[in-house]
């Protein structure tokens, strides 16, 4: 059902973003990112839409990381922000947590040994290494780890977010692009 909703709405949303890029962003990705920041600050579409029809648009607008990062830079300097790759956090959370502990300059109390693999293939945290009790990322908070996008939807999402994600990674974070595939098998 969500694949069908995305399949229906993505072309319209892509057209909307292209229009913003051309008319508000000087036809460039940096211009689009800044135009989206202006829209975020002004609570304009695609941010802060209220109708049920715009649910997909609200979900998609959460993916404009470069825009949100620029917003945070209005309040914090670059050295005060740490960006963690969510895919790495799901697959190898101890690596992401090591970066966080280093960033915060705190003792490394959470390591690889604090994680066990669940039968579903998820990394689960256990507070003490010898404990059998552990906590896994679950289906609450709207997570859908057991669902995948259809290949055409994954490709459309990559087309939509790819240019802004590359800009975010290379120009804003000054690192290699993220290895995201939007949950599809592309």
Can you lay out the helices and strands and say which pair or pack?
Elements: H1 2-24, H2 29-41, H3 55-61, H4 65-73, H5 86-91, H6 93-103, E1 115-117, E2 123-125, E3 135-136, H7 151-172
Antiparallel strand pairs: 1-2, 2-3
Please provide a written account of the structure.
One of its GO terms (molecular function) is [heparan sulfate]-glucosamine 3-sulfotransferase activity. InterPro entries: NST/OST, P-loop_NTPase. Disulfide bonds join 124-136. 49% of the residues lie in helices and 4% in strands. α1 (2-24) runs parallel beside α7 (151-172) and α2 (29-41) crosses α4. The radius of gyration is 19 Å and the shape is globular. It folds into 2 domains: 2-81 and 151-172, no CATH class; 86-141, no CATH class. It has helices at residues 2-24, 29-41, 55-61, 65-73, 86-91, 93-103, 151-172; strands spanning 115-117, 123-125, 135-136. The chain is mainly alpha-helical.
